[in-house]
Structure formats: C-alpha cells, structure tokens
What we know:
This protein is of the alpha/beta class. Helices cover 60% and strands 13% of the residues. It has a seven-stranded mixed sheet with strand order 1-2-3-7-4-6-5.
Amino acid sequence: MDTVLFQLIGGDNVFSWVIWLAFMVVFFLFYPKIMLSQIMWKLEKSARDLEILSEKSKKIVIESISKKPDKRIRDSVSSFFEFFVITPVSLDPSGIVARLDHVLKSQRDRFRYFVKQVAPKMDEEKRASIEMGLAGGMTVNEIAKIVRHYVETVRKTKSVQIAMVLQMQLPLIERLAKSMFKGTKAMSAGDPIGDSIGPLVATEIIGGKKTTEVEDGIVMAKVKMKGRDAFVLKARGPGGRIGFPGKAVKNIIEKNKIARVITIDAAAKLEGEKTGTVAEGVGVAMGGPGVERSYIEEIVTKNDIPLDSVIVKMSPEQAIEPMRKPIKDAIPKVMKGIENSIERTKKGDKIVILGVGNSSGVGDSAKDIEKLKKLVDSYEKKLKAEKKKNNN
C-alpha cells in the first residue's frame, strides 16, 4: 500500500510527477475561486436574512402606528428609515458637547414631529414607544444595508480578503441584528427591555409619591431614605424615553446643596459573567454619546460632590431585548447598593438618585410595577418553553 501511494505522488515515475504538478497548478488556480464561491453563498444568504429582518422591523413599526395602514403611512415610514444624523466636527474640541447636544435635540424633535404626523390621534405615551421602535427598526435596516454593501463589493472586486473578514464578523453582526429586531418589537409595544432596569429601580424607590416633570422627558419625586432627602429621577414612562437626565441633575445641584449623586444603569457584562450581577463603583453610569454624562461630571466636579454608581450586568443584546427575569430579580441587590452609598452621607443630607436608561414599559408609580414584573416572568417562561422545544 505504501509503495502504491509513493508511486501515485511521484516516486521514480516521471509521468506521475507531471500529473501531480498539473494537479497542484489547477488547485492553486481554481481553489481561491471555489473558496470565494462558498463564502459568497453564505454572505448572500446572510444579507438576504438581514434584509428580511429589516422588512419585518418596518412592518412592526407600521402596524404599531395603524392596524390598517394606508399607502401614506407605509411610504412615510419607509422614507424615514433612511433618516441620518451628521455629528458635529471635532477637529476643534472646544464646545463640542454643546454642538452635539444641539444635534441630538434636533434629532429627537424630528422623531417626535414625524410620529405625530403619521399618528396624530395617538396618545403621547404610545407615540413615545413608537419613536423608540422606529429607532430600533432603523438600526436593523442600517445593519442590513451595510452587510449588503460589502457583499456587493466582494462580488465586484472578487476580493477573498474582504469576504473572509466579513464572514468572520457575521456571527456578531447577525446576533446584534436579531437582538435589535426583538427590541424593536418590544419597544413598539411599550414593553420593558433590559436597559429599563435603571428607571425600574427609580420607580421602586418613588413608590406612591407624586412625580413632576423637571426636564424634557425626565420626572422627579422627593423621597425620604434613611433620614436623607433624596431627589429621585427617571425618564418619564411608560412610553419609551431617555430624556435629558444630565440637565435635570445639573439644575437640581444648582438649586440645592447636594451631598452625593448616585446613578443606576445597565452595563455590559463579560462572557462568563452571570446576567443580573450587581456591582458598585464610582463615576456616572451612563452610556450614549456622552452629552448628558458630561453635564453631570462638570457640575459635580465644580461642587466637589462624590459620584457613586450601581450597575446591573447584562450582555449588549440583553440590554436591547425584552427584560429578562435575572435582570428584574436584581432589584433587591441594587437597593442594597444604593443604601450602602447613602450610608456614606450624613442624616439630613440631600442626595440625587438617577435611574438611567430607557423607560419603555416602566411607569412612574408603584401601581405599574406589578404589571411589569408579571410581564417579565411571562416572557421568561416563554423563552424556557421555546428552548425546551428546540432541544427535544
């Protein structure tokens, strides 16, 4: 057997060597094309799947506006899916926060105006949820367009290198797009998402206290906690909002002698960490472009106010998707973290507690909490049932 194999790959037979050499030439000439064809098949399939997901996202938003949408609504939403934002020039960083703040306000105003135009008779909370759903759907659409762009680039250039880079990134891209699709569905319906944990904790603290809107999209209630006066803030709900929390905190600090600022937010966990893990730290726990965070950091630095933060860990996908039970069940641990922070102040001090995040599905009083918790538990049971079905 070894002798036969030796002869097949050459041995002393010149003819075999010629055949082997011809095979190698053909292999090196055609293998890259064969490999590219295989990769292109996978890329094309993924691009189509993402485009289908984008269309489904668009349909969710449209049906949230009207169960029987007319051509005007469909065309308006399709057109708005191409909406874009150009960030300010940052070559000269002086004043960049104010310029970015202006652009973000313009973006928010444009979203509000559009939703009001296509759904003039809808109540304000539902319109706020559609705004968030619209933003989620637009993100799915953008992902689909970018993937399609690179697929067509590979098709035109025949570049194996670009194809391989895109193929390696696809699992993460698809994972993000699917999560954003679930988030679009949840936010359009006004259901809580993982990022709603900050406002949820704030509502737990507020309880039955009356809230007042102190900034666009931000409500506040005054609560007594362990002998301290707490100004508790969150984005107004249960419609999907983020509001302008930085400005709200800044205004409160300018009018009151604040001893400590505590922020609560969702934070990205590392793979291997458990969802719902709670951690305490210092600084402003707040994501996004950084404008609102900048306002808080500036005013607390000026007044030498300590900054504490309590975070609930989850994957980036879980922050976008409907809220999971481990996230909701982390509330007692978060409350303990807040109490630890309060104990570092004196009785009679005034503190600010800010629940950062999207208020989707989170109302402003205790009566909304039980409904939310039942919704989260129901979603968790549904996920477990689906997982069990798939494993069988």
